[in-house]
Amino acid sequence: MDLGIHGKWALVCGASKGLGFGCAQALVREGVHVIIVARGATALQAAAERLLADPARPAATQVLQVAADITTTEGRAAVFALRQDYDIVITNAGGPPPGDFRSWERETWIKALDANMLTPIELIKATVDGMAARGFGRIVNITSSAVKAPIDILGLSNGARSGLTGFVAGVSRSKLASQGVTINSLLPGAFDTDRLRGNLATAAQKTGQSVELVAEARRKNIPAQRFGTPEEFGAICAFLCSQHAGYMTGQNVLADGGAYPGTF
């Protein structure tokens, strides 16, 4: 299927690895020029080289990079200094740490809100008017399945990402919807990423079990009986960015192998 976005420009945050890289890869394979952003310059350079070497990348498709912290004013300034206008924006920042809410100070909450709520809002604010003027725009926020099924030890993530979800529910249904601009969120469950592997290792250390046993127990709780891959996550993201998804906005698209047991 031709997604109809060849030649568009995309900003992909947190794109040096994991789900962000999966999204960048899927877009590049569709002929979308991408600017990838991440804090680690070495990992980002390696990601850019992988994208440029991808045999499925149309030859003229550009891959640019900005090593910056997108959650800071300075990081966002560096991104927009390279390019002002984007047709597609993928917001993505690492989730805040787990823990007991009793131990979190105000500064801890502000950091979580900055990364997982306020930064996406700033990126939306900086790009949607230009998208609307051109008659096309796609924003996809990578959030978490915890938005649908909150996890007690992930209170920081539950709170910050739910705040973003509420904001998007309103702004996505504003005049922007009639101007060709869609804003949706993509909610990942357990995907085979460094973050998941780190969480599994932490759980193994706490329980005294092997990482393999902890991982197997986690997989058994997923109807698909496996973890997702960044590549298939990227494919879902690319579809939400396509011309074909123009009638979808304000949606929370859950990708979790069937783990969420609810109807709605």
Q: Give the quaternary arrangement of the chains.
A: single chain
End-to-end Cα distance? 29 Å
Structure classification:
alpha/beta
Strand order of the largest sheet: 3-2-1-4-5-6-7
Count of helical regions: 8
- The topology string of helices and strands comes to EHEHEHEHEHEHHHE
Q: How would a textbook summarize the main sheet?
A: 7 strands, parallel
Overview of the structural elements:
It is a single chain. It is built from eight helices and seven strands, in the order E-H-E-H-E-H-E-H-E-H-E-H-H-H-E. Strand 1, helix 1 and strand 2 form a beta-alpha-beta unit. The chain is of the alpha/beta class and 264 residues long. Helix 6 (194-207) packs across helix 7. The protein has helices at residues 18-29, 41-53, 73-82, 106-134, 155-171, 194-207, 211-220, 230-240; strands at 9-13, 33-38, 63-67, 88-91, 137-142, 181-188, 252-255. It is globular and about 55 Å long.
Provide a quick synopsis of the model.
With 264 residues, the chain is α/β, with parallel strands linked by helices. The protein has helices at 18-29, 41-53, 73-82, 106-134, 155-171, 194-207, 211-220, 230-240; strands at 9-13, 33-38, 63-67, 88-91, 137-142, 181-188, 252-255.
Set out the fold topology.
Elements: E1 9-13, H1 18-29, E2 33-38, H2 41-53, E3 63-67, H3 73-82, E4 88-91, H4 106-134, E5 137-142, H5 155-171, E6 181-188, H6 194-207, H7 211-220, H8 230-240, E7 252-255
Parallel strand pairs: 1-2, 1-4, 2-3, 4-5, 5-6, 6-7
Tag the structure with descriptive keywords.
single chain; 264 residues; alpha/beta; seven-stranded parallel beta sheet; 8 helices; 7 strands; globular
